[in-house]
Design a protein that fits this description.
With about 350 residues, this protein is α+β, with helices and mostly antiparallel strands. The chain has 13 helices and 20 strands. The protein has helices spanning about 5-10, 55-60, 80-90, 95-100, 115-130, 140-145, 190-205, 210-220, 250-255, 260-270, 275-285, 300-305, 320-330; strands spanning about 1-5, 15, 20-25, 30-35, 40, 50, 65-70, 70-75, 75, 105-110, 135-140, 160-165, 170-175, 175-185, 205, 230-235, 240-245, 285-290, 310-315, 340. It has a seven-stranded mixed beta sheet with strand order 1-20-11-10-2-3-4, sandwiched between helices. The termini are close together. The mean pLDDT is about 90. Bound molecules: adenosine-5'-triphosphate (ATP). The site of adenosine-5'-triphosphate has 20 residues, from helix 7 and helix 8. Adenosine-5'-triphosphate binds near residues 164 and 293.
Length: about 350
Amino acid sequence: MYLSPDQLRRCTVAVDLGASRTRVHLKGAGLVVDEPSIVAVNVMSGALIAVGTPAERMSGRTPSHIRVVRPVSHGTVVDIVMAQRMLRAMVGEKTVRSWRLNPRLRTAVCVPHEADPLAQRAAIETLTGVGARRVLLVDTLIAAGVGCGLPVEEPEATLIVLCGAAATQVAVLSMGSIVAAAKVPVGGETIEQAIIQHLRNHHELVLPSQSVRTLRLDVATGGLNSPQGTVVHGRDVATGLGRKVQIDPAEVREVMAAPLTSLVDAIRSVLHRCPPDLVADLADSGVTLAGGSALLPGLDEQLRQATRMPVQIAEDPSTAAVNGLAALIEGRVKPLNLDAMAL
Ligand SMILES: Nc1ncnc2c1ncn2[C@@H]1O[C@H](COP(=O)(O)OP(=O)(O)OP(=O)(O)O)[C@@H](O)[C@H]1O
């Protein structure tokens, strides 16, 4: 079904419930929430202990009565009650109360391309639970395309690669629609898992989840470029005791590069399914990378070499989807009829 620009402009709130981060944009106020999608709860009393960044810091360090929960997985709400409590805490009770008092509150929310009816229902229930009277679902790929400043409403093709936490979506967009799309289970989190597995197999070290992020970002910023590499602390697989290991940056880069080949295959398969006229359009505009994992070191260069197309990273890749949704609800883009759903 098509969603008209007027329907979107009647929305007051734009939400991107990501596996890694939750982002909320309020019309007129801007981005009011950009926090990790994590909640820490006391399993005995059911009380919320922390939400967002403080809850993320607790991950892997909590006593048995505190559980760290991620209510969103692969861009889909998997724990509706927890997602509602997380949103309420992030936005603030005062704002949620004002939402509840507004009988016409409309909210636009991004959902992954081809999200199944259960995933759509979960997004809707989460938002109605925090006060939305009507929820409009917008395909994340379209929202991200708009957020990257791509001319998605024009009859020429644009190619977007949205690199999230657990998955990457690839799509060719034209005239406000998705011409062809593919999804691969590769993202920042899967790469972190690959690094953890590598260290376990080759160094017999169990790396804490928080250290793997630092290690990955060190590689990203060139902080590991000293000849000695970097020292990481973890737990010895056999003895269970604390141990440190010196890691070669080239080794980490190799592990990170492996899952990215499936991304190149996804781009090729999307291009194969597009009419040649649209593929010809892409010779100049090339590939636009969005999503937090677009900042993975060397990803743009690897894609440039593999596809022989120009590759650019969006100006603000992490917030592309919520910014695009915000531009749609604020009417900052040319009117376009979107492939989306209103429920
Ligand atoms: N500077 C950076 N370098 C490398 N990776 C990064 C950087 N910043 C964020 N990331 C990674 O980007 C991912 C989060 O991206 P994003 O915020 O787009 O995800 P999300 O929208 O929450 O997830 P999804 O789209 O999968 O539901 C995380 O895995 C994070 O580690």
